[in-house]
Amino acid sequence: MRISVIAFTVLFLMTEALCGQLLITEFLVDPKDPLESEWVEACNFSDEAMSLAGWSLCDLVGCSEIDSLSIEPGSYFIFCQDEEAFELYYSDFDRILIEVSPWRALNNTGDLILLRTADSIVADSVPYSAGNGDNISWERISFDAPGWDSATWHPSLAASGSTPGEVNSVHGGFPADFELNLINKLIYPGCGCEHEYLKINIEMPRECYLTLDLYSLEGRKLFTIFEEQMLASGEYLYDGRKSDGVFLEVGMYILQAHLSGQCEYSEKYVFGVVKQ
Asked: What is the pTM of this model?
């Protein structure tokens, strides 16, 4: 995400920013059907409950006052354009949801999101130059880094495209080097037992894309697990199926990992399929 011409506005606002008590942590500016609501997530990082009485959510055009609610310490909450539409799409969301009216429409091609206290002090400000498409949010990587710094933000790597009310998929940053480890090297696909899945632990650097292909020992390509995907670091499961949906036969197989983007890496890993 590049800071656009709106950065000069932020430089002015920075001088009044609070010291990280209430921060913007995630936002989605370009909802796509079936999602029909823009939204902004924030969190109270202070040690005390904070009242939002008199607070405003702003963009470059103007501000809208927020409902007077009290936010407990450590609590995530969401400002949204349309409460009903938000809950319809995020049906498992169980945090505080605040419909702001009138909603300050967030431009898909760049804008400024700003939280302002009742005393007109800027609590946090986030410039952005574009949305991500496909209902993928922008997530804050570090809560210690300023929101106006583009390096603080990254597209969500969650499978759902966003993490409203939850810990961000990119929180904590990215490792410097790629690493892939097979936690178990023997699987029994479809057994319903602890050996049913191949467990793959991946450490993924920033701006890198992983392709992970499955081959037979004879070199025949059977399945692509990931194709040029930007992934969050963590554990992934492979269920042992080929591209036709049929489970692998008993035998040995090869995983070929290839990185593109800002990384260059290629390596092979071997695992086996057994039956009990």
From this structure: 0.79
